[in-house]
Amino acid sequence: MHQFRTHTCASLTIKDVGKIARLSGWINRKRDHGNLLFIDLRDQFGITQCVIDTSSDIFKIIDDARPETVMCVTGKVLQRSSETINNKLSTGEIEVNIESVEVLSPADLLPIQVYGKNDYPEDLRLKYRYLDLRRDSMRENIILRSKVISSIRQRMIDAGFMEFQTPILTASSPEGARDFLVPSRLNPGKFYALPQAPQIFKQLVMVSGFDKYFQIAPCFRDEDGRADRSPGEFYQLDLEMAFVEQEDVFNAVEPVIGGVFSEFSKDFKIDKNKWPRIPYAEAMLNYGTDKPDLRNPLLIRDVTDSFSGSSFSLFSKNIDNGSIVRAIPAPNSSELPRSFFDKLNDWVREEGLGGLGYIIFDKDSNAKGPIAKHLDKDRLEKIKINLNLSPGDSVFFVCEKKQIAEKFSGMVRDKVCNELGLLESKTFRFCWVIDYPMFEQDVVTGHIDFSHNPFSMPQGGLEALNSLDPLTILAHQYDIVCNGIELCSGAIRNHRRDIMIKAFEIAGYDEKTIKDRFGGLFEAFRYGAPPHGGAAPGIDRIVMLLAGTPNIREVTLFPMNNQAQDLMMQAPNDVSDKHLKELALKLDIKDIK
């Protein structure tokens, strides 16, 4: 007989009654029934109920063992009586009568309980993560993550992609976040950087003549954590393809991501059609965000014309000074109490907006509210047509400068949807957001810089860079959004030195800067680079959505907290003076706040 187990704690069934079985696992819980003591023995696979009589010579060993003690038990498999069958367990028809026991590892008093559904502070859960991971929900999330990654990997291989691993120690590059730097002992005073993404390397893979590349890539960014973003490190499905247009990338990615969601989404509905392609400008107009949640049926509309020159001076004067007016419909809300409208107005003020105007169209289509009396019939009718309003609907208004109006109209759209219970449930709604601006302008300094990835191909190529206003140039750049969560960024890449030089020149970088910071890629483009493009869906966010949790730390094995601290391993920590000397480093932190 095997030293530790003949079966897992999920494998014994009614067919095994009468056999001698050996199980190893953790004591999930104990139940004293007078002359009998029951323990639920747990491993990764499940639970088996084990029983021992108080008269047994080994009873005291089991009685003294605390929850989470690891033990090995051997005994005969017995059939449970009909009234004690537990249909929630795969082993619920049997139990093991303990004949011998070995305590493999005793457990002390637990800082957090494994059995049950107790809530604990996150810092406690992260410090004792190995206990937290024994709990059902966490174990299921991590197993789901493993299965999702395996499925993605197989789908990519089946689609003709080859898996390569790119370097972890590399050069610093401006990807949009701070680098993690690693001092070099062999090159004193110089530093490696951990890759924010394998961006340059995967482009070099294409330059090297490979056609389809992927990897499940670790990425490192020194940025603040939040619910949907881990501080420090995360994983993405990194992929790149040669000789492709934008639609080729879409056609390669959709079956992989859509297939994974179909495989693991249980009873959620997933649209089998091609995902909508939504231009960035359209997304900002209709949804107030470039991460639209398509489960929300409400569409924002621009109604600046309906207020321009009107007697509603609060809006018309702001319009004269460059503001716009965005309108958000609220279907079937005209008969809701006044408190509904007041509550939304109070909410936007708490969020930093001056207020939220509204008009109510009653069941007879009469316009009511403080704004309605300032608009003539034609203006009111134009608003109704623009928003496709029906009798009984209301409409809210945001009047601000464009960037602020977009932000708040998107927030109001979500708030109204939630307040009215309009959000589509149990569904995953995907879309591609496309046609991002290539450049953006700092509103304070006027400086023009890249709005997203500097390695994207501008639409119109070199001619557009030479002849158009930079702020009107769009990039062959795209995101995948699912239920309002950005899952992926990608682009058709620039593969030409002349376009690279001009694009960086517009953003204020000379050719020497390009050579200094991107010398490997810039040099490689001299020797023939194919048109190429790719994407990088985030593994953590995919699993987060499939697990139905809003916090990415719930699907990460050993995450850091929001301050980028590993409470379990006590990292980051101090290093010795000897170690610093080896690296030619000296600490000077007195002025750092």
| Gross morphology | globular
Number of helices: 17
Termini gap: 62 Å
The largest sheet is: 8 strands, mixed
Task: Going across the biggest sheet, name each strand in turn.
Answer: 6-9-10-24-23-22-19-12
Low-confidence stretches: none
Q: Kindly estimate the percentage of residues that lie in beta strands according to DSSP.
A: 15-25%
Q: How do the strands and helices of this protein lay out in sequence?
A:
Elements: E1 20-32, E2 36-42, E3 47-53, H1 59-64, E4 70-79, E5 94-105, H2 122-127, H3 129-132, H4 136-158, E6 162-163, E7 180-183, E8 191-194, H5 199-207, E9 212-221, E10 232-242, H6 246-264, E11 269-270, E12 277-279, H7 280-286, E13 301-302, H8 304-307, H9 313-320, E14 324-330, H10 338-350, E15 357-361, E16 367-368, H11 377-387, E17 394-400, H12 402-420, E18 427-428, E19 430-434, E20 439-441, E21 448-450, H13 461-467, E22 477-482, E23 485-492, H14 497-506, H15 511-524, E24 532-537, H16 539-547, H17 577-582
Parallel strand pairs: 3-5, 6-9, 11-18, 12-19
Antiparallel strand pairs: 1-2, 1-4, 2-3, 4-5, 7-8, 9-10, 10-24, 13-14, 14-17, 15-16, 15-17, 19-22, 20-21, 22-23, 23-24
